[in-house]
Amino acid sequence: MNRSESDQAEGSQAEGGRTPLGAVNKLRVALADDQALLRASFRLLIDNTTGLSCVGEAGTGAEAVALARRVEPDIVLMDVRMPEMNGIEATREICRSGRLRTRVIVLTTFDLDEYVFGALRAGASGFLLKEVLPEELIRAIRVVASGEALLAPGATRRLISAYVGQPERRVTPLPEVTAREREVLELVARGRSNEEIAAELHVSMGTVKTHVGRLLAKLDARDRTQLVVAAYEGGLR
């Protein structure tokens, strides 16, 4: 099976009835960090974890973009501060491509690094601190690949709230979002799962998935993390 056939078989989003990434083949992970020792540690962990495979390394942002275009990984672990092109610019280049279904997880030293919110706005699916425990890193890769937002334990939401909650920010209107979709979006922004949303709104899981899928399309969002960004920028809390 070639890469395009595999893409069709696996799908790219958990919402809308598509098969989650990694449901058929191993999750393909690329590493982007200017510290060779850190890349080697991550590669060792990934290659020794069932269901994961490291498909390449990059030491600069420009190399990360080229690598993503060449091998089309499912996930890129992206450092923010790299030479030539930083992680924000590299994330934007990777996520703006409609052809690539790659998702980006940003790695940072500080959980309120101003650069991280820029990366989330550029299309990243979440972020992790570099001192993350091995099991947490593996879980994060699988969570993001499944189409869920990497929000727990709330660090991503704290970050988004801190930067879009600034008094001088301008609210971006939410286009053509119905009252029910707005309710769903508010709950997504609070980190609720589909099951929790269904229970709170007294609707079926299928109905919630339909609403989330429509929100992804209307707000041009790649995943739930981007829905959270859109919700906060739209003035929701």
From TrEMBL:
SMART domains: HTH_LUXR, REC. This is DNA-binding response regulator. It holds the Pfam family Response_reg. The modification 4-aspartylphosphate is found at residue 79. Residues 28-145 form the Response regulatory domain. Keywords: DNA-binding, Phosphoprotein, Transcription, Transcription regulation. SUPFAM superfamilies: CheY-like (SSF52172). GO terms for biological process: phosphorelay signal transduction system; regulation of DNA-templated transcription. One of its GO terms (molecular function) is DNA binding. Residues 170-235 form the HTH luxR-type domain.
